[in-house]
Design a protein that fits this description.
By secondary structure, the chain is mainly beta. It has two helices and twelve strands, in the order E-E-H-E-E-E-E-E-E-E-E-H-E-E. The longest helix has 5 residues.
């Protein structure tokens, strides 16, 4: 499945970036080959309600190098993901399902705006780095290491399960007044004919400061 990107250029954190108002998430939909190794239904319809989280002051831009999510035991380096020649969004190789990627046309984690990190739920018959992303709940912590040596700490404030056909692109990629983070993988029921999950699991998180770690 191919997905047109149709990016527009905006300004975040004092620098030009390519925003993604049109479903790069069908990139993140992993219909490309990612989330297709097993029937692994996920359901967030009974997820805990969203909560308010006070954002910390933004950091200067610095590319991310790794991500850690203690609740689900996930840790990975972060590869910068751009666009394929056909304007679809790059994803980590399905043959390395434990590898996460940062969409490099989004803000860097800790910078004003929504940083976007994507990962497979499975691949090559194995669990992926975000196999348990659906288990996150408001209040859970996400840590992201940056090239400047700082470790940005985020707190999940909302979880969502959305059909790929109706992906909430403005909520995910739209400009924000404070530093935010979006984690995205596949979920919902498995479409065997398309060999892809029908939904996306999305964690929305807010930057709350820096911590020691590495």
């Amino acid at each position: 499945m191919t997905v047109p990107h149709r990016a527009r250029v905006g300004i975040r954190g004092g620098r030009a970036v390519a925003a993604a108002p049109v479903c790069i998430v069908a990139a993140l939909s992993f219909a490309l080959s990612g989330c297709s190794a097993a029937d692994q239904p996920l359901d967030l319809r009974t997820a805990a309600p969203a909560q308010q989280v006070q954002a910390a002051s933004a950091l200067s831009p610095a590319p991310p190098t790794w991500i850690e999510i203690p609740r689900i035991g996930a840790r990975s380096s972060l590869l910068p993901m751009g666009l394929n020649p056909d304007r679809t969004v790059e994803t980590p190789s399905v043959h390395e399902p434990m590898q996460a990627g940062w969409y490099r046309y989004s803000p860097t984690p800790g910078e004003v705006g929504p940083a976007v990190v994507l990962g497979h739920v499975n691949g090559d018959g194995q669990d992926g780095i975000f196999a348990r992303l659906d288990e996150l709940r408001p209040g859970d912590e996400v840590r992201i290491g940056r090239e400047d040596g700082q470790v940005a700490r985020f707190v999940v404030h909302r979880m969502a399960q959305e059909p790929k056909s109706g992906f909430p692109r403005d909520e995910v990629y739209g400009d924000t007044t404070d530093p935010q983070l979006r984690l995205i993988t596949c979920g919902g029921s498995f479409d065997r004919s398309a060999r892809s999950y029908r939904d996306n699991i999305i964690a929305f998180a807010t930057f709350v400061g820096t911590v020691q770690g590495g």
